[in-house]
Specification:
Elements (H helix, E strand, L loop, with lengths): L12 E2 L1 H11 L6 E5 L7 H4 L5 E6 L2 H7 L7 E5 L7 H4 L5 E6 L5 H14 L3 E9 H8 L9 H9 E9 L4 E2 L6 E8 L9 H11 L7 H12 L3 H7 L13 H8 L7
Parallel strand pairs: 2-3, 2-5, 3-4, 5-6
Antiparallel strand pairs: 1-8, 6-9, 7-9
Amino acid sequence: MKPRAKKRYGQHFLEAVWAERVVQAIKPGPEDRFVEIGPGPGVLTVRLAPRIAHLTAVEIDPEMVAALAPNIPGNTTIAVEDFLDFDLDLAARPGPLRIAGNLPYNAAAPILLKLLAARRRGVALVDATVMVQREVADRIEARPGTKDYGPLSIVVQLRASVARLLTLPPGAFRPQPKVHSAVVRLDFHEPQVAMKDEATFQALVRSIFTQRRKTLANALRPFGESRGIAARDAIAAAALDGTRRPETLQLTELARLADAFPSQE
């Protein structure tokens, strides 16, 4: 008897015909080492593993693990835990990692932030090809001045190039979700924008985007007060126009603004 999808885990399982298309989009190589996030019953796992050197499948649901374990090839290891608790540093010690997975809708953003934080620490992550809700894909690749542009767009684009590979209808999954999905690939890289302190940059972005529709001068005031620098002085130091809105700022402009503040380290 096949295990059933559980709402508490946000499970929607990929149909076999779509799994093959996703593997083709991933373009695995025989020397690659992968971590798969949330393999579920293994429809992607059993197609990906034979084409690579090693796969670690991270699955939180013990029932899914019991169903998957008898079917995996010898180069696959199952980690029974929440991916948000999974030790990527340890997993990457033998060599660079690629990431794949069908991310649960209720945890997609935290998972992406975990990957980016690992890359920032120096973990050897090459890329991540993941299925997410279409609205999350819109946010990841959004450009300045659009309604979807915000902190997730900025932190992802700071350390990764984003490409949308596939759009998946609800019928690509069982049970069918009420939304469309997308397969996106993040190719990780070092920041292409120079800045003095990335932690200050991220704190600034989180702060000003809580008031994204206000002018920059007003949206920046709380952050400036917390760092002991007047918003108008920071804006002048960054050579920006205080009447603009935060949602219009490019990465380079946000970096200049962050550099006007001291780090908290």
